[in-house]
Amino acid sequence: MENELYRSEVECKRESEEIDFSDEEKNEKGKTAFDCDICGKSFSQKAKLVIHERTHTGEKPYHCEICGKSFSENGHLTTHKRIHTGEKPYRCDICDKSFSQSSNLTRHKSIHTGEKPYHCDICGKSYSEISKVTIHKRVHTGEKRCHCDICGKSFFDKSYLPRHIRIHTGEKPYRCDICGKSFSETSTLTMHKRTVHTEEKPYHCDICGISFSQNDHLTIHKCIHTGEKPYHCEVCGKSFSRKDTLTKHRRVHTGEVPYHCEICGKSFSRNDQLTMHSRVHTGEKPYHCEICGKSFSRNDTLTKHRRVHTGEKPYHCDISGEKSYHCGICGKSFSDGPRLTVRKNIHSSVKPYHCEICGESFSQNGCVTIHIRIHTRQKPYHCEICGKSFSQNGCVTIHIRIHTRQKPYHCEICGKSFSQNGCVTIHIRIHTRQKPYHCEICGKSFSQNGRVTIHIRIHTRQEPYHCEI
After folding, report:
1. Out of 227-231, 260-264, 332-336, 391-395, which region has the weakest mean confidence (pLDDT)?
2. In sequence order, what DSSP letters do the residues of 49-72 get, joined into one string?
3. Which Pfam families match (predicted)?
4. Could you tell me if 335 and 323 are in contact, meaning their C-beta atoms sit under 8 angstroms apart?
5. How far, in Å, CA of 159 to CA of 181, rounded?
6. Are the CB atoms for 79 and 100 separated by under 8 Å?
7. What are the b/e assignments for 119-139, b being 16+ CB within 10 Å?
8. pLDDT band at 455 (very low <50, low <70, confident <90, very high)
9. Residue 237: exposed, middle, or buried by beta-carbon count in 10 A (0-12, 13-18, 19+)?
10. Quick check: 10 and 2 in contact, CB under 8 A?
11. Residue 69 CB-density burial (10 A; 0-12 exposed, 13-18 middle, 19+ buried)
């Protein structure tokens, strides 16, 4: 550290030596004073005045010989070069993390100490840096100093503008040296390395001990213990533990869908939804199963798929060992509440989601999306073997098993194999003689819901299928 400080002092001396001090002026108190002719700001050293004047002239005399980027100060060039060299000379003595700039190390240490000595005098919110207080105050004043020339969007903090512009340009200057993937922000690259390659989780909850790869994830997690939800929707009053969740929620009221697919024009309320949707067109499946080699477009789908191989059933009741969400009508268990709600809608015939074209109702919102493709005749998913098209990605997966003859789902009672998990569920009812679906008119029971639909036509005398000849 001492060597680095000495090196910085030498660099400052060199820069000072480049400037002529022959025209020094004295103020009334006998101290040297140098004033900017443009804005009137005063400096105690002429070297600092020369550097300051470059903010007005735009002069950037120091150039990076690797990428050609220019800087107004030699020290800024030195710091910039570390992006190319990977040099991080400043190390945290608590967690051993390294940084390319001394100021970044100082900011990082506040994570460990929790120190936030700078306060907003309007709302009392605290920050670890005074610059963040200055930026925060613009929330109260409404001041937005920076504007995007492309879309006109305004920002409180000028550091957000370069990152925002990359949305328009598609520039991704930060590259992973392990897998080669590129990112638009250095923080995203850091997170990528932690989650995909190193699995580093340096942020720990002091209440339950769970670890996280990002500090903001730890902050959000702590709200589970405290129950704090500081972000409130001014329309419906609903509260959230995260500001970004509130922003996304507001779009329910405004109908805003700011993310657009450049290929088909479809719009989304969240950027991650657009990213996943884009893979429908590109066919990208970046998540691979290390056991069977199968690829997926979503990480959570890969996680669920792995359970086919491991037999893992991770959601259990601590007391009975059963899954947490149990349907009292058909006996089926689910790993989360929303899936149980959907299941109950099937039994209760509640269908809150409607097709705007024909008015048909559904128990799940996703079913509406799939149904609309009947009207639009859209079939965006294709079989790579025979070229057949489908309206649902799951149908492609099931269809491909016709070619591969794969039957990954097995009956635990008789060992019979099936290409679909739902077929196993229906088949097992042959052994258990379970018939969870009942006719509301005569009370007759069936093992499949579709058979109830067909049976009811005996009572209604409905004949929906007609011969066209």
Report:
1. 332-336
2. HHHHHHHHH----EE-TTT--EES
3. zf-C2H2
4. yes
5. 24
6. yes
7. ebeeeeeebbeeebbebbbee
8. very high
9. exposed
10. no
11. middle
CB 363 within 8 A of CB 345: yes
Per residue in 188-198, pLDDT tens?
888 788 777 87
What residue ranges in 77-220 does DSSP mark as E strands?
A: 90-91, 98-99, 118-119, 126-127, 146-147, 154-155, 174-175, 182-183, 203-204, 211-212
Residue 120: DSSP 8-state: -
DSSP per position, 31-54: -B-EE-TTT--EESSHHHHHHHHH
Give the containing element (helix H, strand E) for 240.
strand 239-240
Single out the residue of 371, 343, 342 nearest to residue 357, CA to CA. 371
Give all strands (DSSP E) within 269-420, no chain letters.
287-288, 295-296, 325-326, 333-334, 353-354, 361-362, 381-382, 389-390, 409-410, 417-418
**C-alpha 404: how far from chain center:** 35
DSSP 268: E
**8 A C-beta contact, residue 362 and residue 350:** no
Q: What is the pTM of this model?
A: 0.31
